[in-house]
Amino acid sequence: MKNLLASLTALALAALGGPALAQTPAAELAQPPQSAQTWSIISGSGQHGRSLRWTDAQGVRWSRESILLRGFVTEIDQQLRFAPNGALV
After folding, report:
1. Which of 17, 19, 54, 71 could bridge across to 36 with cysteines, CB 3.0–4.6 Å?
2. What's the DSSP call for residue 25?
3. Is residue 78 very low, low, confident or very high in pLDDT (cuts 50, 70, 90)?
4. Cα angle vertex 30, ends 47, 57, to 5°?
5. What is the pLDDT of residue 70?
6. Helix and strand numbers, DSSP H then E, in the chain
7. Which residue would you say has higher pLDDT here, 20 or 40?
8. How many structural domains comprise the chain?
C-alpha cells in the first residue's frame, strides 16, 4: 500500500510539474552576433545542427546549440559569467 501511495504521489507531481518545464520560443532566446564562432554538427547523412560561441559587451560568454536529430529539435543556450578572480559566478 505504501508503494502504491508513493507511486501515485510521484505521478501526480510529475503531471503537475510538466507545464512548468515548457519550452521557451526560439525568438526569445539570445541572438548570436554575426561574428559568433560557428561549427556545423554533421554526420554521413547530413547536417544535424550547429554550435555557436560568442562573448557579449559585458564579457559574458555565450553558447547556443541548435540540434535536429530524427525529429528531435532543441535549442540550448548557455551563458558563463566570471568573477575578477576567474571563478564562475
Report:
1. 54
2. P
3. very high
4. 115
5. 87
6. 1, 4
7. 40
8. 1
Cell numbers describing residue 84: 575578477
In angstroms, the CA 34 to CA 49 distance is 17
CA 44 and chain centroid, separation? 25
Q: Is residue 17 part of a domain?
A: no
Do residues 10 and 17 touch, judged by C-beta distance below 8 A?
Answer: no
Taking the whole predicted model, whether its pTM rises above 0.90 is answered as no
8 Å CB contact between 17 and 5: no
**Structural domain boundaries, residue 50:** 35-89
32 neighbors 64 (Cβ within 8 angstroms):
yes
